[in-house]
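Progress against Task 2.4 (sequence-to-structure conversion) is shown through the following example record, which the project officer requested during the mid-term review.
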Amino acid sequence: MKYILFSIGLLWGGYLSGQDRSIEIDKVVTSQHQTIIKGKKITFQATTGTQPVWDEDGGTIAAVHYTYYERTDIDRTPMRPLVISFNGGPGSGSVWMHLAYTGPSILKIDDEGFPVQPYGIKTNPYSILDVADIVFVNPINTGFSRITDPETKRATFFGVNADIKYLAEWLNTFVSRANRWESPKYLIGESYGTTRVSGLALELQEQQWMYLNGVILVSPTDIGIDRTGPVDAANELPYFAATAWYHGKLPPDLQKKDLDEILPEVEAYTIDKLIPTLAKGGFIPSRRQGIRGPTNGALLRTLKTKYFKS
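Structure tokens generated for the chain above:
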């Protein structure tokens, strides 16, 4: 297992090591592996390679590199989900989602997130590969993805809308080649990747006739929406509540509930009470400035105290 990513880098590094540092435009390498997820042995196939990007005339203009993991110890039914993963930047490859979140291997780090020597990787016991297949995509100029036609304008790839357009077309081809049209499909993006997958969701539906089952936003950006002022402050409350629940820091009457029970209550309070209160600010009568939330203010104790008077 620990040699998967080393082998991938060695193979593709070899393709780039020639005098012209070129990369094969349409090339894949597959290998078989096993891992342990949630205490259960999982076998899977790893495919790493490149797939072309074509222009409107059918000419190849770029190669997008990807790594695709498919579980092999079960019968793949049409209902087996496919998760399509991006990192952000926008100049970052999918390495961080790959090696620190959902992939079958993760970096060796300590409890504070610092690398542990000797550096390397270890089995990810919480990979999502037990429940879904995953493809990690490296947009142009990240990973091994490169423009191959020197005459192609860089604006074809670099720009919010350009990025979304060519990747949607690329995903159409990938899903067709992998025979995954019937599969439930999810996009997951981190940081700028949340902007990317938000745009891709619409582009895939309107231009590629690909309807998604979900979009997952990790460490989201503002996605072009101005959320300054009271809305920006209030939007933190559901996140704080969920984090406090996870770490067992909520009052006992709330901690004993499932997160799915708590969040609707927190979200309703945020919209109906907290945002209007923050917007009024100093215009709130003094007798009402000690605002209280549901369950005698217990949920509000998860919000930064700087926003309120005690």
